[in-house]
# Entry
Amino acid sequence: MDYSKAKELLKLQQEASKIQNELSNIHIEAEVSWVVITINGKMEVVSVKIEDLEITKDIPKLEKAILDAINKWLKKSQEIAADKMKDIMWGMWMNFPGM
# Structure
């Protein structure tokens, strides 16, 4: 690999690192029934809120709402991360030695 390729790969790595930092500042909120879960783009739970205290008496319903909210958030976070990373990954692929 010549110096220009190494320099380009370093630039792409720096851009990917910048995007990772941006993802930590993105908060994704998923609401299902009485449960609101907020998770950042780095997949860290920021907060969990239960808006109806009466639901806490129905544990299976509460557990289902939490599960559904997490799955909803996970899908959305994957879409956001993929969108942010697609240009970086394309650049890395195009600069892969032998391409």
Remarks:
- The first strand starts at residue 27 and ends at 32.
